[in-house]
Design a protein that fits this description.
heterotrimer, A mainly alpha, B mainly alpha, C alpha+beta, B: mainly alpha, 3 helical TM bundles of succinate and fumarate reductases, 4 helices, 75% helix, 0% strand, C: alpha+beta, Ubiquitin-like (UB roll), Fumarate Reductase Iron-sulfur Protein, Chain B, domain 2, 5-stranded mixed β-sheet, 11 helices, elongated
Amino acid sequence: MAKSKQYDNHLGILGWLGGGRWGVERYLYIIHRVAGLGILTFFMLHIFESSIRILGPESWNAAMETLKTPVFKFGEFLVFVGFAFHALNGIRLILIEWGLAVGKAEEPVYPYRSSLNTQRPLMVIMMVLAAILMAAGGYNIFLLG
Amino acid sequence: MKETAYWSWFIIAGIVMFVLLGLHMAVMHLTGFLQLFNPAGGEAIAWENVVYRGRNMFFTVTYIILLGAALYHGFYGLRTILFELGLKGQAERSLTVLLWIVGIILFCIGTYAAIAARSLQTVL
Amino acid sequence: MEKDTEKKYQIAVYVRRFDPERDEVPRQQRYDLTVVQGMTVLDGLHEIKQNQDPTLAFRFSCRMGVCGSCAMLINGKPALACNTQILDVTQSALTVAPLPNFNIIRDLVPDLVPMFGVHKGMQPYIKRSDAKEMEEPTGEFFQSAHELEEYLQFTYCIKCGICMAACPTMATDREYLGPMPLAQAYRYNADTRDDGAKDRKEIVTRNHGVFSCHYAGECSNACPKGVDPARAIQLMKKDLVRDYFKLGGARKCAQVHKLPDTIERKEKIAAPAYTVER
């Protein structure tokens, strides 16, 4: 049989974002990814930024003065939010990927319950903790810091 | 088997970071609630506090472990994402080597800074 | 008052069409359809093909959610066309498109062959080291009901490709094995009669294998048979971690359960002749 032309219907990177009708875990997946990349970018800068201390107190204090401007304050908050989400969602993912939070195989009886239902209480707990941590960090950074 | 090793240590680095980075974040960003390891009080980035932590053996070791764990965890994650964009064969191997090299260079810079910070003085 | 079952709905059906001889990219075509309660998307497509446009191509076979031929993207969600009531999905407009993350052959027909190829590579059959026993069985493999439950859920898979269409990793990564083959690999790894887990683990732990799953959970959400591929993949990772850190607890392979000597075995029934030339 001659092979006829086919149309490549892969969704590409937009398929990562999904959207609209997808489940909650799909959104957590993409936020986890974006937060991770954000923290990695910050972290590589952070290695150099915090190494300034070995040049002595004058350089250190000058650098820290720059970091007190509103733009950097907001950036600091973003990093904190990213960390809080990535850390707590990461613990959820570790428990899941080690097979500890997905339950055992069960007979599929309609309406189907999947491992998503099994891990959902964990997901809710982790997201509530993340929200509390974000609020505490935001309060600290903007109102006290 | 190699991928299983990479992935397993990626997860363990994640757990190590959850503890150590949690401590780091509490020290740096929850100063209003906790005054952990900030003997001079006030801001965590005040010079006296920074020198106190830099000279403390516990913090030197912690910084180095955290640096290694974070670089490994972050670069493995980046590698996974880039692989999923559809890299193939040779490009994948080159990327793995490149990330190892960049990671080790950054690790050396950070370790040098953490060790050099042990000799800092509070008095100007 | 009109009874619900007799009430007619006018629904605009937008079908994503692609003719390899004419089109470079898929186009959308609108059909107007009168829908009554109980009509599935597949019924609607039949109605269109019969009365409006005989050139519309789609794949179907059993019409009762068993064969897995008619998976398509219905109002943005991958589902079996025969298993989806039109009125459950919409009261006004219905969009039907072929499954994403596959090539389109024509109209609503995706090319599932790559997926079947990967599935075949997973060695989805009972593999034993004692080849003689497989050819000339002397008894049965003993498997308890509890051991059966370890993998029974994953045997309900109909290979329709819906999980592959829902998976975000599949969207960019063509080398990724995919939820269906990985779940099927676990189905045989978890089977106590099987002895080939080592070979399958070798395949799934390569790049673009089991560690490219990040539990977005879409495959389990979308699965029309409740197979839960995401669970199978996580349980497989659990096995792999246990192997890597040598934590033990690996299952033993089922032994042949010999029949008592007093029982006489019946003659083996001869296999029927092949229907096609081999």
